[in-house]
Amino acid sequence: MNTSIEVLLPEVLRLIFLHTQVSQACYESHYYYRMRHSQLPWNLGQVCRQWKGIALSTSALWTQIPNLDLDASKTCTASYAEYLSENLRRSHLVPVYMQISGEFIPTLHGSIINIVVRNSERIRALKLQSGSIMPALKGMKGRLSSLERLTLDLNRKFEEALCDLFETAPLLSDVYVRIHTSSSKLALPFHQILRYEESAWNSSSIGKHFD
Prior knowledge:
By secondary structure, the chain is an alpha/beta fold.
């Protein structure tokens, strides 16, 4: 005899699955809460074949990419690059939420960041807690067509040549900036931004703030 949950329509199961999804607080807030690998809906695909099929075909379950911690040794491996690519594949071209932290080393993290840059058009929310990552993201320039929310928490100076990296982002409306020095040279589409906050690493005060 089938149990009640076994006779639920796939559409109903999909809605239930979406309610199990981890809160997007780590992306809806500019505070740097880091999403973990364990918060992805892996368990949903381990119950039975039907559940696995529904989980894999539900793009919204896979749009939150766990924090890419460049200080963790696992992010330097080929298996991690495959894992990131698979996570992006499961989201089926739907806009994604992405975080990157840690010290970028080109010889170690080049393949991972290349995957991120190749998916620039899909990034809806981006959090960067790494000043050294900026040069590696130059390929994003002019390709951030889905970006709505940006958090820059950079504890070191970044190259002035990269100050226009986020200048062209037609949907960008919410920005928080905390950098080593004044961000006056940081080019942003201020004519469309609805919420902007800025602070400096050497001060807890907000330099600019408007809603």
